[in-house]
Amino acid sequence: MKKYMSWRAQAGRQWGCAARRGGGRGARDALRTDSAGRVSRHSSVSRSAPSTPRAAMTVKQYTREEISKWDTKKENVFIIDNVVYNVTEFLDEHPGGHEVLVNLAGKDASEDFDDVGHSLDAKELMKKYVVGELVEADRVQLQKRHVAWEDSKVEGDTGFTSSWKFPVLLGIVVTVLYSYLFG
Ligand code: HEM
C-alpha cells in the first residue's frame, strides 16, 4: 500500500542520530534519506556552514537476507522504508505492544508501520533505534505516489490550459463579450 513518505525522502527528511545508540552527538547529527532511500549522516554544524564540505559518515549497510536471518530471539531487528531498526530495548515500552514488534522481527515492517498511522512523536522516537540501512540493490523506491503525481504535473504544465496563454485568451474573450453586451 501507500508510502506516505514522504516521508522524508524528497522533503529531505532527517533522521536523528541513532546508529550510535543512546547519544553520541544526539541532535547535532542527522541521518538523511534521499529520494533513492539512501541514508547518510550529516552534521548540523556543517549544515550551518555550507561552504565547508559535509562530513557524511558511512551508515552500516545490510542486505534483506541478513535481516531475515538475524537471530531474532536475541535481537528484534526490522526494516522500515529501507532503514534498519533494532528495537530490542524498546519492546516493553512500545505503546502498541511487544508482540506486534516481535512478529515483524527480521521482516520489512514498512506497510504495517504506516497502516497504524504512527504520530510524529513516534516517528521522532524511532530515530533512536536506527542501526543502518539496506544496501542499494535491496532498497525500494520511496514516494512512488508522489513521484507519479509530479510526473503528471509536469505533463500538465505543457498543456494549453496550464500555460499563460489560457488566462490571457480568456480575459480577451470576456472583455469582448462584455463590451458587446453592455457597451
Ligand atoms: C521503531 C519503530 C516504532 C516506534 C518507535 C513505535 C512507536 C509507537 C508509539 C510512540 C506509539 C503510540 C501512538 C503514536 O504515537 O503513534 C505506537 C503505537 C502503536 N504501534 Fe508502534 N512503533 C514502532 C513500530 C511499530 C510497528 C513496526 C508496528 C507494526 C504494526 C507498530 C504498531 C503499533 C500499534 C498497533 C500501535 C497502537 C496504535 C493505537 O493504539 O492506536 N509499531 N508505536
The largest sheet has its strands arranged as 4-7-6-5
**Major sheet size, sense and barrel closure:** 4 strands, mixed
Helix content: 25-40%
| CATH topology label of the largest domain | Flavocytochrome B2, Chain A, domain 1
Write the element-wise H/E pattern from the N-terminal end onward. EEEHEHEEHHHEHH
**What is the averaged pLDDT score?**
73
Main location: endoplasmic reticulum
Protein name: Cytochrome b5
Pfam families: Cyt-b5
Membrane topology: Single-pass membrane protein
Structure characteristics:
single chain, 183 residues, alpha+beta, Flavocytochrome B2, Chain A, domain 1, four-stranded mixed β-sheet, three-stranded antiparallel β-sheet, 7 helices, elongated, disordered N terminus, binds protoporphyrin IX containing FE
Please provide a written account of the structure.
It is elongated and about 85 Å long. The protein has helices spanning 44-47, 64-68, 98-102, 110-116, 120-126, 144-157, 165-182; strands spanning 14-16, 29-33, 39-43, 61-62, 77-80, 83-86, 130-134. By secondary structure, the chain is α+β, with helices and mostly antiparallel strands. A hairpin with a 2-residue loop joins strand 5 and strand 6. The model is unreliable at 1-30, 41-55 and 145-152 (pLDDT under 50). It is found in: Endoplasmic reticulum membrane; Microsome membrane. Belongs to the cytochrome b5 family. InterPro entries: Cyt_B5-like_heme/steroid-bd, Cyt_B5-like_heme/steroid_sf, Cyt_B5_heme-BS, Cytochrome_b5. This is Cytochrome b5.
